[in-house]
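Our preliminary data section would be incomplete without showing what the modeling component actually yields. Below, a chain of 334 amino acids is followed by its predicted structure, encoded as tokens that our downstream tools consume directly.
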Amino acid sequence: MSEIRYSKFDNQYVIIAPERFHKPLNKDCTYTKEDIDHCPFCVGREEKTTREICSIKENGKWLTRVVPNLYTALNLETKFASKRERFFESFGGFGMHEVIIDTPKHISIFEFSERDYFYLLKTIRTRVEDLKKDSRIKYLSIFKNHGLNAGASQSHPHSQIVGMPILPIAKKELLQREFDYYKIHGRKLLMDIVEEEIEDDKRVLFKNRDFISFMPYASLFPFEVMISTLDNSFSFTNFSDMKLEELAIIIQKSINLLQKEIGEFDFNIEFFEPPINKNFDTEDLFHSIENFHLFYIRIRPRIFNLAGFEVMNEMYINPVEPEFIKSVLDEFIY
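Predicted structure:
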């Protein structure tokens, strides 16, 4: 039986349509030996990448590397200036685009250890702290694409950071929703959602000392997972190494849990970091972010293609109830 659910967090309607569950999956997570033979991210081919920005090393060997994206979306040398052509307006493509090479090993992310995730998270924290010093950059989009269907062009595990002089409209609207909720209730919207999920206990996957992973009530994607902090932390910069270790554990367990049910799959991960510097469109809420925003990560499997309905209406059809998925996954949860 279909159901239209509303996400207070995303301010979006989602159609839960179990009748579409048997639609063929769109999965392509494989890579060939040829990929490895010509991979510019592998150890010993460091000269194949752009200049190294930073790295984490152990015993003289790198564990993660950060380099400028060769196919950059934005450029630090470009001036961020407004340009008008009668009715139309554009801005110079100022910004930065970096690639984090997650590990020296050319492996599938489903083979990642807790330490692999920890070093990736530690690298993200380092870059957030450093990029925050550039007042021209207002917002960082931090994400991982795994597999062709999720937009990955290299099979070697890597993540990306795009720094922009503006805040995407969808993110501005999210922060405004959270701010408005706080002004009315004196609480964080996502914290109230998390507490409701814990009490309901129909969609929670894992919980440790600092974090919780759960399948949102109005999941936009089938098998979607959200990971949130259990305290009032709002940024990567709030996390000690010990907390990053806890986060690494819950990410690994959540991804591996999904793999046990649907096999290896393509997916996107969003590591949401609130605006790092004030801009004209965040002036009213920037200094209150720690009061109303809660740190979160979203893991979005891309096992079905978005089709005409989703694109035209900006409204998602999810063929699987998150409660059903949780009941199926229960046998693998330990």
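The first strand starts at residue 3 and ends at 7. The chain has one domain: 3-332. Preliminary results of this kind motivate Aim 1 of the renewal.
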